[in-house]
Amino acid sequence: MANYRAIWCQDATIAYSMKSGEYPVLNMLNLTVERGTIYGLLGPSGCGKTTLLKCILGRLKLDHGRILVFGSDTPCQREGNEIPGRDVGYMPQDLALHSIFNIKETLHFYGKLNGMRKREVDLQIEFLNDLLQLPPGSKLIQELSGGQKRRVSFAATMLHNPRLLILDEPTVGVDPVLSAKIWRHLVYLSSNRGCTIMITTHYIEEARQANRVGLMRSGTLLCEGEPEVLIQMKGLSNLQEVFLELCGDESEQPMIHDSSSGDEEEPLCFDKYSQPALFNPNILDDDKDKLPFEKVPAEPTKTFNHLVKTSIINPLHLSACIMKECTNIMRTRALLLMYFILPFMQISAMLLCWGRYPKNIPVGIVNEDHFSKNFSLSELYISFLQQGNTMDLQNFESMREARKAADNAEIAAIVHFGPRYTSELLLRRINFEESTVETALKSSVYISLDETVKLTSMLLKEKFLDAYREFQLAMVLKSNHNPSLAILPINFTEPFYGKEVDSLTDYMTPGVILQLTYTLSASLTGIRSLVERKMGITDRLHASGVTETMLMLAAMIVQFFIMTGQVAILFFMALIVFDSPFLGNLGLAVGITYLQGLTGIAFGLIISAVCTEETQAIHLNVGTIYPILLLSGVIWPLDAIPYPVRYVSYLIPLTLPAVAMRDVFLRGWSIGRERVWQAVLINIAFIAAFVIIAITVRKILFNKR
């Protein structure tokens, strides 16, 4: 291509689909921008200007046609022609700034992205402060007015002296005096520094200072040329009238909307901001702002795919993105506090409320046995029921009163002793060979249970049977008989794994630690990345050459360190505060937990890729928490899950790691055990799969956003 061309578009076409068919946003557009000139792209909002800029930056792929920037297809990453990258400065239509950064932090961040040293950034900030009348550097972006924010955005774009400036509506909301000063500086950069500038605006008259303008409507250029030449050709007095006349000639053509903005075409603005500014070349000192590019490459170079480059790790970009993530977290102290309060609250609530057996269960006693004032076997059995704190025994005069209390859910069980319970039981034991069925029935204890709370009824049945075994042994000892007669021929020895406790908490604790680590990592990672993309910050970072890989890697690294604190809290609460049994290697348990957290981070990247709103991300995250929790065997054994569903549970990233974690905690197993090392490999496989899916989804959706 000819050396004088900075941007060259030939038959550029891109369309988006609607129910009624496909509509072109760019329609066979041809455009040329010469090096060292200002090109004003004029047109109403929604005519395709922003879409064209994204195509020039390599952010969108054309359906048809070709765009070359300095002789290369974009994106291009060759030394001296890095677009997107340090050779371009992009100011998006949105502010695209981190609201909790201050001005100095914002500019240093973008300076670091573009390879500038701290001293160079400071010198540029000093110059830009004077040019743009920026507020004090310590002021947060969120504290600035709309016009001040746009000035900071403009400063971040020009900070590194790029050879190509792409400015999307830079003077919106800027006062006329400052707007004129900005235009004088742009003219100076193009005339004296060789900078190529492409600027979009719907303020027509201010573009009269451009070397060349293109009047755009409905995805096509109505005309293109030098402003004064266009005015003379039409025999009119200003650009405004030229454009209105051209629009009248095209009035019968259908309106096409810009897919990148989603807005309908709006009328052009002709107001006080549109007045042309006078160019004063003495506005700057020649030695104060020197371009680092002396030569402009002209030959086409090898380019990357139109999708985001993922194969190269740029240390500068990575460190800058890590700094960005850390500043975001440290500046939002309430959010930082939440990162560490949440795991404390969640594990405390789970280990306090889940898996523990009920205590002080109300049980009604109806004792009609009155053998003697000083002795009855019913009272002996009741004394064994009173041991421990499982039951809270309440006496009732009659079954009618007890039934009424049960109907009102005041008691969970009724224990009834008949009028001749003691005498019939003694008769049955003394002369058991002659005892009848009637004797057996009258010497029995009748228990009615509320079976609506199954765990409570199962526990009560166990306690009633345990108490009766002790009651039988006591009767045998009192009658001086051989105590072996009261011992059941089934004996439970010491457990070979675990311990005998009235709780399921020990079973649940390992899985709860993994589940909380996974959930916290997924939710926090997904929402943070989504917010940046929604604010337009991601587009700006991509224009600076930051790849999706860098953004994801930085998010994973920072979340990894946050996860370190969260894991420490979870293990401290489980092992120290709640004294959960632990027989294995602590390093192995922590390692499995870290892998599960990284799996959650990777899943959070998928959430941020597929969602466009924070509410969508929250719903998706919450919607996956409960199926994972219920199907993974964390709170209920996998053996209780029906086989067709159990196969599904093995596809959940938490299932097998939770089993392995339980083996490490309660069995003391090492990495050499098959179930443990298999769980480690499965975690690694899920991490890799989720990262690949996240990158793939972002690539697929790349051209749709």
- Low-confidence parts, pLDDT < 50 over ≥5 residues? 251-311
User: For this entry, what is the oligomeric state of its chains?
Assistant: single chain
The biggest sheet amounts to: 6 strands, mixed
What is the count of structural domains?
Answer: 3
The number of strands is 16
Share of residues in helices:
40-55%
- Rg, Cα atoms, Å: 38 Å
Terminal CA distance: 31 Å
Mean pLDDT: 82
SS strand fraction? 5-15%
**Envelope shape:** elongated
Structural class: alpha/beta
Describe this entry's structure for a reader.
By secondary structure, the chain is an alpha/beta fold. It has 3 domains: 5-87 and 162-288, P-loop containing nucleotide triphosphate hydrolases (Rossmann fold, 3-Layer(aba) Sandwich); 330-353 and 503-704, no CATH class; 361-486, D-Maltodextrin-Binding Protein, domain 2 (3-Layer(aba) Sandwich), CATH 3.40.190. Helices cover 48% and strands 13% of the residues. A hairpin with a 2-residue loop joins strand 4 and strand 5 (72-73). Helix 2 (103-113) crosses helix 3, helix 9 packs antiparallel against helix 15 (505-534) and helix 17 packs across helix 18. The model is unreliable at 251-311 (pLDDT under 50).
